[in-house]
Write a structure and sequence with these properties.
- The complex is a heterodimer of chains A (286) and B (363).
- Chain A has two domains: 96 residues, no CATH class; 151 residues, Phosphoenolpyruvate Carboxykinase, domain 3 (Alpha-Beta Complex).
- A five-stranded mixed β-sheet of chain A has the order 1-2-3-4-5, with helices on one face. Chain A has a five-stranded mixed beta barrel with strand order 6-7-14-10-9, surrounded by four helices. Chain A has a three-stranded antiparallel β-sheet with strand order 11-13-12, with helices on both faces.
- Chain A has nine helices and 16 strands.
- Chain A starts with a strand and ends with a helix.
- Chain A has 286 residues and is α+β, with helices and mostly antiparallel strands.
- Chain B is an alpha/beta fold and 363 residues long.
- Chain B has one domain.
- In chain B, strand 6 and strand 7 form a beta hairpin.
- In chain B, helix 3 crosses helix 4, helix 8 crosses helix 10 and helix 8 crosses helix 11.
- The chains are: A alpha+beta (286), B alpha/beta (363).
- Chains A and B meet through strand 5, helix 2 and helix 7 of A and helix 2 and helix 4 of B.
C-alpha cells in the first residue's frame, strides 16, 4: 500500500510516495508541523521510496529512491530509508534549483539577519545549527544555503536536521524534548538520525531574509569560542569550494558573491561550548 | 501523440498549457533531456513562462550553457595540444552544432566532445593528449581490446582538471559495419569561432548525414527523441537558406553511400515532427521491401516517444527489443556479436552482486 504526502518545503513542492512503513512513520513524526497539502499543486519533485526488485523485498532488504521514474542512486539497505529520502531531497535541490546559488552550509536567522555557516562534512555544522535553532534562532537549513540570483535574499529550506554519530547524543542532551527519527546505523556517513525542526521555523519557511554575515565554523575540543576575521579573497575561495553549483552558474554566481562580499563580514569561528557559541553568534546580529 | 512531441512540432502549444499539462510535459522532457530545448523554444518565441515551470526550464538551460562554454574552451585547448602534428582535427555532433551556432545547440546537453582524426595519426595523437592531461577513463581489458579491434573510436579520454570528456574517432562507423564509408569522401568545412579561432567540422549536408548514421546505427535509444528532434531542427534551419536542402541531402547521401540511414532520419523526422521535406515524396524514403518498411515504421514510430509512464505502452517495449538486436546486428556479424553479448551479460550479473558493497555514491 502506497501512502502519498504533498510537502511544501520553502520554495519547493515535493510529493513523497512510499510503501515503507518506516518512512511513513518518520515523515509523520518529523514533518508534523508542515502544511501537508491536499490541493493539486504543481509538484517540483515527485519522489517515490520503494523496493523495485521483488527479490530485494525479502533477501537483504533494500530500498530505492526515485525522482519520478529515475533512480539517481544505487539501492541502500532498508533501515536507511528515511535518511536516503533526506539525502535524495538534497540531491534534487542541488542538481536542479539553479535559480539559487547553493552553498553547503548551515543557515540560521535572527532579527531578520541571516548567518551562513559553510563547512565541510564532519565540522560540526549541523550540530551547531541544531543547537542554535533550539535557542532562539530560526532554522533555514542545516545543509543548504539558497541565495536567490534575482534578489540576493537567502531562502529557507526548512527540513529536519541531519545529525551524525556522537552529535545525536549531544543534541539529545542539549535540547529539551527533542524529537528524532529512527536511527540508521552503518550508513556511508556513520550512524545518522534526523532531528525535528522547531515549529516556528517551519511556520515561517516562506520568509526569505538578507544575508548578514558568513561564519566558517569549526568544532575544536575544549577551545574557547573565538571569531577571526577572514579576508574577502579567502572567503570567496572558500565559498566556491562549498558551493554545489558555482561551476554551472559561472559569471552569474561570481558577480553575486563579489557584490555580497562588499557589504558583509566573514569570520573563522572556533567553538566547543554551545553557550559561548550562542553568545558570540548573537552578538553578530544584535 | 505525446504532449512533448506536440510542443516540439508546434511550439505555440507552449503558450497554451495549463498546470497539469506542464507537469506532464516537464516530466517527459526530463526523461528525454529536452527541458533546455523547451526553454530555448519559449525564449525564441517570447512566450511567457508560468512561474512554477520557469525555474525548471531555466535551470536546464543553464546546465546546457555551461556545457557550451566548456566546448568553447576545448575548441581552443584540444587543437592547441595537438598543434605539433599537422593532422586534421574535426569536431562532430554536439560540438559541431555549437561551433556552427545551430538552433539545436541551445539548451542541449551532451556528455562528451567528439572529434575525428586520421587513423594513421591516432597513436601519435593519443600520446600527445596523454601528456596534455587527457587520461583514459577506466575501461577493463576486454572493452579496451574491443574498442581497438572493432570500433571506430578509442575509449573516452577525460581531462584531469577541466573534467571534459573527449571521444576520439577515426571513422564514423565501426569497421564491422557493411556501410563503413571512406572517411575522405566526407566534405569538411571551417568555422571561425569567437575566442577559439578556426576549427574544422563537417559541412551542412554531411553534418546531417553523420547525425542520421549515428542515430540509426544505435541499439539503445535513451536519447532517441532528442536526437531525431536535433535532425528536425537541423533540416528546418538549413531549409531557411537552401529551400531544396532535403533533395540536396538525399543526393549527397546516395553519393557517399549512406542513403539508407539518411532516408530513415528524414522519413521519421517527417512522420514525427512534420519536418518539411520539400521536393521529396515520403514514399521515396521507404525501404524497397514492404515487410521491412512495416517493421521499420513500427519500431521507429514507437521508439521516438518519451520513455515515460505517461506514454509508455507495449509497442514501445517491443520496438526496444527489436531495435536492440537490429543495432547490434548492424554493428557486427553474429559470429562476433554472440560471444560479445555473452561476455557483457556475465559482467552485468557480476556487477549486480557487487553493488551491495558499493554504497559510497550518495551526496
Amino acid at each position: 500500500m502506497f501512502a502519498q504526502f504533498t510537502l511544501p518545503i520553502g520554495p519547493f513542492i515535493f510529493s513523497i510516495k512510499t510503501d515503507h512503513q518506516a518512512v511513513i512513520d518518520n515523515l509523520s513524526a518529523l514533518y508534523a508541523d508542515y502544511a501537508f497539502s491536499e490541493n493539486s499543486l504543481f509538484i517540483d519533485f515527485p519522489i517515490t521510496i520503494t523496493t523495485r526488485s521483488m527479490l530485494r523485498r525479502f533477501i537483504k532488504p533494500q530500498i530505492d529512491f526515485l525522482l519520478d521514474e529515475f533512480a539517481p542512486f544505487k539501492p541502500l539497505p532498508k533501515d536507511q530509508s528515511f535518511a536516503m529520502l533526506e539525502w535524495g531531497m538534497n540531491w534534487c535541490i542541488t542538481t536542479r534549483a539553479h535559480q539559487f546559488l547553493i552553498l553547503h552550509a548551515g543557515t540560521i536567522e535572527k532579527n531578520g539577519r541571516v548567518v551562513i555557516m559553510p563547512a565541510e562534512q564532519g565540522s560540526g555544522k549541523s550540530t551547531l545549527t541544531a543547537a542554535m535553532v533550539y535557542s532562539g534562532w530560526r532554522l533555514f537549513s542545516d545543509e543548504l544555503a539558497l541565495i536567490s540570483l534575482t534578489n540576493s535574499l537567502v531562502h529557507p529550506c526548512t527540513r529536519p536536521i541531519n545529525l551524525k554519530n556522537d552529535s545525536i547524543e549531544v543534541i539529545n542532551n542539549y535540547v529539551d524534548n527533542a524529537v528524532f527519527s529512527t536511527i540508521a546505523k552503518d550508513t556511508h556517513k556513520g550512524t545518522v538520525a534526523l532531528l525535528k525542526p522547531p515549529k516556528e521555523s517551519v511556520e515561517r519557511m516562506l520568509e526569505a531574509a538578507p544575508l548578514h554575515c558568513i561564519v566558517f565554523p569549526k568544532y575544536v575540543a575544549n577551545a574557547q569560542a573565538k571569531l577571526t576575521p577572514v579576508s574577502q579573497i579567502a572567503a570567496f575561495q572558500q565559498l566556491i569550494q562549498h558551493s554545489f553549483n558555482y561551476h554551472i552558474l559561472g559569471g552569474e554566481a561570481f558577480n553575486m558573491i563579489a557584490n555580497l562580499l562588499k557589504n558583509i563580514t566573514c569570520y573563522q569561528f572556533e567553538y566547543s561550548d554551545f553557550e559561548e557559541a550562542k553568545e558570540i553568534l548573537s552578538s553578530l546580529v544584535d | 501523440m505525446s504532449i512533448l512531441v506536440q510542443a516540439l512540432s508546434k511550439p505555440y502549444i507552449l503558450s497554451t498549457l495549463n498546470q497539469n499539462q506542464w507537469q506532464i510535459l516537464l516530466a517527459q522532457a526530463n526523461v528525454c533531456q529536452l527541458v533546455g530545448r523547451l526553454n530555448y523554444l519559449m525564449d525564441v518565441h517570447e512566450y511567457s513562462k508560468p512561474s512554477y515551470a520557469k525555474w525548471h526550464l531555466e535551470s536546464a538551460y543553464k546546465i546546457a550553457e555551461k556545457q557550451r562554454k566548456q566546448a568553447l574552451v576545448e575548441f581552443l585547448e584540444v587543437p592547441r595540444a595537438l598543434k605539433s602534428i599537422s593532422s586534421q582535427l574535426t569536431f562532430l555532433k554536439g560540438a559541431a552544432y555549437i561551433a556552427k551556432k545551430l538552433p539545436c545547440s541551445f539548451g542541449r546537453t551532451f556528455s562528451d566532445i567528439d572529434v575525428l582524426v586520421k587513423k594513421e595519426d591516432l597513436n601519435k595523437i593519443e600520446n600527445i593528449l596523454k601528456f596534455s592531461n587527457w587520461l583514459k577513463s577506466e575501461v577493463d581489458d576486454y572493452d579496451e581490446k574491443y574498442y581497438r579491434t572493432w570500433m571506430h573510436e578509442i575509449p573516452p579520454l577525460y581531462h584531469v582538471t577541466r573534467g571534459s570528456v573527449l571521444d576520439v574517432h577515426h571513422n564514423i562507423l565501426p569497421s564491422t559495419n557493411k556501410h563503413t564509408p571512406n572517411i575522405d569522401s566526407f566534405s569538411f568545412t571551417q568555422v571561425d569561432v569567437e575566442n577559439a579561432g578556426i576549427i574544422n567540422t563537417l559541412d551542412d549536408t554531411d553534418l546531417c548525414i553523420h547525425m542520421a548514421v549515428h542515430l540509426f546505427t544505435e541499439s539503445e535509444f535513451h536519447n532517441g527523441l532528442r536526437d531525431i528532434s536535433d535532425f528536425d531542427m537541423l533540416i528546418r534551419h538549413f531549409q531557411q537558406t537552401r529551400p531544396n536542402f532535403v533533395a540536396e541531402l538525399i543526393t549527397r547521401a546516395k553519393f557517399i553511400g549512406l542513403f539508407d540511414y539518411t532516408r530513415l532520419a528524414t522519413r521519421y523526422a517527417h512522420i514525427i515532427f512534420s519536418t518539411p521535406i520539400n521536393g521529396i515524396k515520403l514514399d521515396n524514403l521507404k525501404d524497397k521491401s514492404k515487410i521491412l518498411t512495416l517493421f521499420q515504421d513500427f519500431c521507429f514510430v514507437n521508439i521516438f516517444k518519451p520513455n515515460h509512464r505517461s506514454c509508455r505502452d507495449w509497442k514501445m517495449t517491443v520496438a526496444e527489443f527489436f531495435l536492440y538486436w537490429r543495432g547490434h546486428l548492424i554493428r557486427m556479424p553474429l559470429r562476433l556479436l554472440i560471444p560479445h553479448l555473452i561476455r557483457k551479460s556475465y559482467m552485468r550479473v557480476k556487477d549486480y552482486f557487487k553493488q551491495d558493497d558499493d554504497l559510497t555514491q550518495l551526496p
